[in-house]
Amino acid sequence: MRHARILSSELLVKSWGTLTEYNFQYSKLSGELAEISREVYDRGHAAAVLLHNPISDMVVLVRQFRPPAMVNGSDPFLLEVCAGVLEGDAPETCARKEALEEAGVVVNDLRFVVSAYGLPAAVTEVLSLFIGTYDDSVRRSGGGLPDEGEDIEVIELPFQTAFQMISSGEIVDLKTIVLLQHLMLERANVPTAESART
Predict the structure, then answer these.
(1) Quick one: which of 91, 104, 147, 179 could link to 140 by a disulfide (CB 3.0–4.6 Å)?
(2) Are strands 77-80 and 58-65 parallel, antiparallel or unpaired?
(3) Residue 184: is it exposed, middle or buried by C-beta count within 10 angstroms (0-12/13-18/19+)?
(4) Dihedral (Cα; 138, 64, 90, 130), 10-degree rounding
């Protein structure tokens, strides 16, 4: 049976998140032991929610400034689903809270899609993904929390338009792509990981 352990760790930076250098030992397929050193970034776990109005078939997305995209030379104002760090909340609670804070949307029904690592080679974050339904009976301004430096544009558009923005390259955020594709699979009655478990 293969095994792995942490040999040592050194805190490099603690700011918005925590960057730590770890030395690991693990068993290779051959049975030999190997050692590697990696920087690992930790900012906690998170939740994200695709907001969908099943009556009008509209979705609500948000656009905000993303520094890493700018560093890569890409458009830094990414179009995404609502998301945030758990900060002690359950993923479901976080998803509802972020929908209200970022988009001004009160979630009616919330269904779980999956929890997964987005970048397991370097980041500890496990992201829980949801699809939440809404209607127009209760809407607020949204836009994020100014005291946290958030400046978020709220965008409502037809689901089909949003889905086509994946292939056009207008949506490049992975969590958003996964949730839009999941909703499309549900419409096509294609079995998903969620439906296989129920």
Answers:
(1) 104
(2) antiparallel
(3) middle
(4) 70
- Return per-residue pLDDT of the chain as tens, 198 residues: 889 999 999 999 999 899 999 999 999 999 899 999 999 999 999 999 999 999 999 999 999 999 999 999 999 999 999 999 999 999 999 999 999 999 999 999 999 999 999 999 999 999 999 999 999 876 766 665 556 656 789 999 999 999 999 999 999 999 999 999 999 999 887 666 555 455
> What phi and psi, each to the nearest 5 degrees, are found at residue 171?
-115, 115
Closest CA to 145 of 56, 68, 85: 85
CA–CA separation, 28 and 2 (whole Å) = 7
Strands of 32-152, DSSP E: 33-42, 46-53, 58-65, 77-80, 82-85, 110-117, 126-133
The total of other beta-carbon atoms located within 10 Å of residue 62's CB is: 24
Cα angle at 118 between 21 and 143, to 5 degrees? 105
